[in-house]
Specification:
elongated; binds 5'-O-(N-(L-cysteinyl)-sulfamoyl)adenosine; binds zinc ion; alpha/beta
């Protein structure tokens, strides 16, 4: 399906260095080592409700990954999915009486508008589960043929016993896996499964549910195989970053990796598993199911500058779980005003050192807090300096670096 419009990224003098990112699988900050084209897959939305600040924060984190790679001279092949058929979407549609397709279409369109307003660079390939159905059914048929799938009544499951590396992405112990599996869409208690952690690959046709024909009979796919197949068929194995929020560490990314590794007989699925922290409100994870949402579209409708929203979300480390509080927006708006005032000066202190600093901070596991503090220091000096002894090129360089590296238009 169509993504959203591209957003020009200014060229900066010189080039940034290699990006170091925290990898969940090894529990360490490691250098990413893409070849000429860096390959990234980020799990997309389930479009049953509008984009909230938690989603936005996650997509902003991976937007910075792309920006830092580009600044280091890489091309980026970025793929994102849309889970446009799954239980939460069908449940919401059934609840409101709306057709599931029109609900999905409307929320995807709103998401595109939110991402455009926040200046998030679009994926090169934006793929819905529904449009990927033939490749997904082929993959499940392949798993079955290879003995890596079994039936329970009308459904097909993936046995974790077919995945020797199962657990190497999350590193969770079995007890933790079992409790998270139950909380996050799994069915540990289903009778007939060989192991409670085995995951659904294909759900046989149920009355009143959408279904597609396949070699396994009519039905619809499980969640994890969708991302395995969409990523694998476009990026190949051992791609550079598999990304999403930390709520996807288990079971989603563990099972997606396990499916792909079983399909290809090679490993790893990705060389870095990168997870953003959860944005909370009033002490709880912001989530559609909890209903405690601050929506990007609502902020836009209230004429809040999306660049202030962007600054507010970047003013926290992407990996940290953090609270959205009422004070964040006014602080970001004030900061944006100061940055814009300095950027509009006819001349200002040289900014070459600032460029080096921002590059270094971002390359260090996306330390946006330090990068923004460095911009603050330059802005303070610029607003205090007199134009007479300033550098006439400096404000333009700062506008470009803040745009290219932080995605903020001044
Ligand atoms: N469609 C699946 C992924 S294949 C899904 O998780 N969809 S979602 O709409 O629930 O979430 C979209 C992305 O936002 C995921 O990467 C998820 O980890 C992230 N996310 C969800 N809630 C939050 C939150 N409160 N804070 C930060 N990120 C969040
Ligand atoms: Zn996914």
């Amino acid at each position: 399906m169509d993504a959203w419009p591209d957003c020009a990224v200014p060229d900066l003098p010189g080039a940034g260095g290699p990006l170091r990112l925290y990898d969940t699988a090894t529990g360490s900050v490691r250098e990413t080592a893409p070849s000429h084209t860096a390959r990234m897959y980020v799990c997309g939305i389930t479009p049953y409700d509008a984009t909230h600040l938690g989603h936005a924060a996650t997509y902003l984190a991976f937007d910075l990954v792309q920006r830092v790679w580009r600044d280091a001279g890489h091309k980026v092949h970025y793929v994102q999915n849309v889970t446009d058929v799954d239980d939460p979407l069908l449940e919401r549609a059934a609840h409101t009486g709306e057709d599931w397709r029109s609900l999905a279409e409307r929320e995807i369109q709103l998401f595109r508008e939110d991402m455009t307003a926040l200046r998030v660079l679009p994926p090169d390939e934006y793929i819905g589960a529904v449009e990927a159905m033939p490749e997904i059914t082929d993959a499940i048929a392949q798993l079955r043929k290879d003995g890596n799938a079994y039936g329970v009544d009308e459904d097909i499951y993936f046995p974790v016993s077919a995945a020797p590396r199962f657990g190497s992405e999350s590193n969770y112990d079995r007890e933790t896996m079992l409790s998270l599996f139950g909380e996050r869409g799994g069915d540990p208690d289903r009778t007939g499964k060989r192991d409670p952690l085995d995951s659904l690959l294909w759900r046989g046709r149920r009355a009143g549910e959408p279904h597609w024909d396949s070699p396994m009979g009519a039905g619809r796919p499980g969640w994890h195989i969708e991302c395995s197949v969409i990523a694998l068929n476009r990026l190949g194995m051992a791609f550079d970053v598999q990304g999403g929020g930390s709520d996807l560490i288990f079971p989603h990314h563990e099972h997606s990796a396990a499916h792909a590794e079983a399909l290809t007989g090679t490993a790893p699925f990705a060389t870095h598993y990168v997870h953003s922290g959860m944005i909370g409100l009033d002490g709880e994870k912001m989530s559609k199911s909890r209903g405690n949402l601050v929506l990007v579209s609502k902020l836009r409708a209230a004429h809040i500058d999306p660049m202030a929203v962007r600054l507010a979300l970047l003013d926290g480390h992407y990996r940290a779980d953090r609270e959205w509080t009422g004070g964040r927006l006014p602080a970001a708006e004030a900061r944006l005003l100061r940055w814009r005032a300095a950027a509009a000066l006819p001349a200002a202190p040289p900014a070459d050192g600032l460029l080096i600093e921002v590059r270094e901070f971002l390359a260090d596991d996306l330390d946006t807090i330090a990068a923004m503090a460095a911009v603050d220091r330059w802005v303070a000096a610029a607003l205090e300096s007199s134009a007479a002894d300033g550098d006439a090129d400096a404000p333009r360089l700062v506008v470009n670096l803040v745009d290219a590296l932080l995605g903020v238009a001044l």
